[in-house]
Amino acid sequence: MELLCPAGNIASLKVALNAGADAIYLGLKDDTNARSFAGLNFSPKKLQQAVEYTKHAGKKIYLTLNTFARPSEEHRWYQAIDMAADLGVDALIVADISLLDYAHSRYPWLDLHLSVQASASNLAALTLYQQEFDIKRAVLPRVLTIKQINTLAKVSPVDLEVFAFGSLCIMAEGRCHLSSYVTGQSPNTGGSCSPAKFVRWQEQGNRRLTRLNDVLLDQSSLDEQMGYPVVCKGRYLNEFNQVGQHALEAPTSLNTLSLLPQLAQAGIVSLKIEGRQRSPAYVEQVTKIWRQAIDTYLENPTLYQVKEQWNQGLAKVSEGQVTTLGAYERDWQ
């Protein structure tokens, strides 16, 4: 099983590889990827350095082009594909059908991975993408149960990748427009569901207010740890709740260490760590723990057990310092 780790800069890429990552995924310094934040991602020159460093380490590198090209601006995404092919990246992670078609027709030797933003979650969808664009892998949305993943893996025409750790998305990925009602910008084209230019933190007495485009999403004490503001993770007042609670989702991180044997037995080829926007320290800590867990499982699958220090280490860098299995395990089903 491949351990696929994020890199928002060269420092994160290097620590991920040194900590045991099998592959790295990253994006360009623009809105062709869904983590478009100031100070994050790679210029063309930095991307070339990243490719050379990763190849020298004997590992793989994937370029994320998972936003949807805007009308009359498709050429910018096409240029990114051209550059990736010239630099020799191992695969492109793509959601937009037009971009898949461009990459497949121009560079048939370049592996294509279907992004989670494409929301492909059944056999018919995977078959279509495989037949039309020869995708080699699909990243499954984080709304499927482990039972659904098992069922799909038995018949999938392509390799499957799942998110193993990191921030959760409770929406149908690739179809969420929730934040566009607050910012006026679609997360699927703008590169972020909470663009940094709209984020405001304000101190008011002993409280900290969190706003997105002047809409109050949350408030906390000054010493309370807060996650990055997104609409779905805000705390709101309503007719049933006058104290302010998380209406849709509490800030937590996905942690599937306990499901590692089931994911391996299902034939999942890649375990993805979320967090291109996180620090090198986060990337290093999570990569080390997951490297240990995967190696422990492979050494003796029947005796695999999650070590408490692994969970403790992951909890420290988790959103809200809380982890969950998310949709992988729904008790109410």
Number of domains: 2
Briefly note the CATH topology name of the largest domain: TIM Barrel
Helix content: 25-40%
Strand segment count: 15
The first-level CATH class of the largest domain is given as: Alpha Beta
Helix and strand succession? Answer: EHEHEHEHEHEHEHHEEEEEEHEHHE
Describe this entry's structure for a reader:
The protein has eleven helices and 15 strands. By secondary structure, it is of the alpha/beta class. The chain folds into two domains: 2-168 and 252-328, Phosphatidylinositol (PI) phosphodiesterase (TIM Barrel), CATH 3.20.20; 185-246, no CATH class. Helix 3 (74-87) links the parallel strand 3 and strand 4. Helix 1 runs parallel beside helix 2 (44-56). It is globular. The chain starts with a strand and ends in a 9-residue tail after the last strand.
Draw up the topology in text.
Layout: E1 2-6, H1 10-19, E2 23-26, H2 44-56, E3 60-65, H3 74-87, E4 91-94, H4 97-106, E5 111-114, H5 123-133, E6 137-139, H6 146-155, E7 159-167, H7 180-183, H8 187-190, E8 199-204, E9 207-212, E10 215-221, E11 235-238, E12 241-246, E13 253-255, H9 260-266, E14 270-273, H10 280-299, H11 308-316, E15 323-324
Parallel strand pairs: 1-2, 1-14, 2-3, 3-4, 4-5, 5-6, 6-7, 7-14, 13-15
Antiparallel strand pairs: 7-13, 8-9, 9-10, 11-12
Helix pairs in contact: 1-2, 1-10
